[in-house]
Amino acid sequence: DNAKITAGSVLTVNVNEVNDAVEVLATTALTVDVADDTDNAFALTAAAVKSLIVTGDGALTVTNDIGDSDLAAVTSFDASAAGGHINVAVDGSGITDVDTGSAGDMLHIKTSAANAAYDTNGGNDTVEIDDFASGAVLNTGSGGDKIELDAALTASDQKIDGGDGSDTLEVTEDVTAGDYDNIETLEISGD
């Protein structure tokens, strides 16, 4: 289950029940193709990767944060063509574009870039927000989505759009700023 790969600037890695660690050296554009009907959960080390793309219909959990020291160069995560469950955490102010796929995905925004765009597309997704920078936009697309907002929005240019479906916004901070659209249920809880 461990793999260490040295490749050119563009690489596609096909994964099938990989559950340990994958290390990719020198590649700046990486596509991870997840085999249909498989479960994959691994730490990804790819320090040079700027564009990380996920395709296929299997489930993928990246166990380390996108934006941490092992994935510090990533500016774009695109799993919009993925049909399986995607579970990722974003922790970096340089990541400006994040798209998950059509299944019920999990996105944890630990640190947000200014003007970042987050789109979870279809499915019943869960999004946890610890930090949401100025100009950041979240669109959860179709499906019954749950958005856990654990950070106070401070500007009118911060936008959360639940999209189509029955969407729930759960807040633990004051909701006095920001732009909210297509939220059907608001849950308020104290710290």
Overview of the molecule:
- The protein is mainly β and 191 residues long.
- The protein is 0% helix and 47% strand.
- The protein contains no helices and 19 strands.
- The strands form two sheets. Strands 1-3-5-7-9-11-13-15-17-19 form a ten-stranded parallel sheet, with no helix packed on it.
- The protein is globular and about 50 Å long.
Please specify the SSE layout and strand pairing.
Layout: E1 2-6, E2 10-15, E3 21-25, E4 29-34, E5 39-45, E6 51-56, E7 59-62, E8 76-82, E9 86-91, E10 97-99, E11 106-111, E12 117-119, E13 126-129, E14 137-139, E15 146-149, E16 159-161, E17 168-171, E18 179-181, E19 185-188
Key structural traits:
single chain, 191 residues, mainly beta, 10-stranded parallel beta sheet, 9-stranded parallel beta sheet, 0% helix
Write a concise synopsis of the structure shown.
The protein is mainly β and 191 residues long. It has strands at residues 2-6, 10-15, 21-25, 29-34, 39-45, 51-56, 59-62, 76-82, 86-91, 97-99, 106-111, 117-119, 126-129, 137-139, 146-149, 159-161, 168-171, 179-181, 185-188. It has no helices and 19 strands.
Biggest sheet overview: 10 strands, parallel
Fraction in helix: under 10%
In the predicted model, the low-confidence regions spanning at least 5 consecutive residues are: none
Secondary-structure element string: EEEEEEEEEEEEEEEEEEE
**Topology, number of strands:** 19
Number of helices: 0
Main sheet strand line-up = 1-3-5-7-9-11-13-15-17-19
From the helix content, strand content and strand pairing, which structural class follows? mainly beta
Q: Determine the strand fraction and express it as a percent band.
A: over 45%
Distance between the termini: 41 Å
Radius of gyration: 16 Å
Shape summary: globular
Average pLDDT, rounded to a whole number, is 94
